[in-house]
């Protein structure tokens, strides 16, 4: 099961899946993870050590990031207004996972 922790100090949502996706499978994993009525996905960018899927929730932009070497997945907001919506996004995602 995937856990989500809102970190107000760093303004991120830490995503803790029961099993990390493989580097080459992250785009599919991210698309399935964010598959919800209130979320629309946008751009995917694959790098050597970090992948990022940009998405929208409540008219704000966010990024779902995966860093292979640190084995970490997190969501960050794009802008101050989106940062204020992070707790709402975390609650929405938790409800979708149930």
- In the CATH scheme, what's the topology name? Double Stranded RNA Binding Domain
User: From the coordinates shown, what is the CATH architecture?
Assistant: 2-Layer Sandwich
Number of strands: 6
Mean pLDDT over all positions? 95
Percent in strands = 35-45%
CATH class category name: Alpha Beta
How would you write the strand order of the largest sheet? 1-2-6-5-4-3
Radius of gyration: 12 Å
Query: How many individual helices?
Result: 3
Tally of discrete structural domains? 1
Instruction: Summarize the main sheet.
Output: 6 strands, antiparallel
Class from helix and strand fractions: alpha+beta
Outline type: globular
Regarding quaternary structure, how should these chains be classified?
A: single chain
Report the end-to-end length measured between terminal Cα atoms: 10 Å
Secondary-structure element order, N to C: EEHEEEEHH
Uncertain runs: none
Please give the share of residues in helix: 25-40%
Question: How would you briefly describe this protein structure?
Answer:
By secondary structure, this protein is of the alpha+beta class. The protein has helices at residues 26-33, 80-84, 86-97, and strands at residues 3-7, 12-16, 39-46, 50-57, 60-67, 72-77. The chain has one domain (3-97): Double Stranded RNA Binding Domain, CATH 3.30.160.
Overview of this protein structure:
The relative contact order is 0.21. The protein has a single domain, classed as Double Stranded RNA Binding Domain. It has a six-stranded antiparallel β-sheet. It is α+β, with helices and mostly antiparallel strands and 98 residues long. It is globular and about 30 Å long. It has three helices and six strands.
């Amino acid at each position: 099961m995937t856990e989500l922790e809102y970190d107000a100090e760093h303004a991120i949502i830490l995503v803790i899946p029961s099993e990390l996706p493989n580097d080459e499978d992250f785009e599919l994993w991210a698309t399935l993870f964010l598959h919800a009525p209130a979320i629309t996905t946008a751009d995917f960018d694959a790098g050597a050590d970090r992948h990022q899927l940009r998405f929208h929730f409540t008219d704000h932009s966010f990024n779902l990031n995966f860093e292979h070497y640190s084995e970490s997945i997190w969501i960050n907001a794009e802008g101050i207004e989106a940062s204020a919506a992070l707790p709402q996004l975390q609650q929405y995602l938790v409800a979708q996972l149930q």
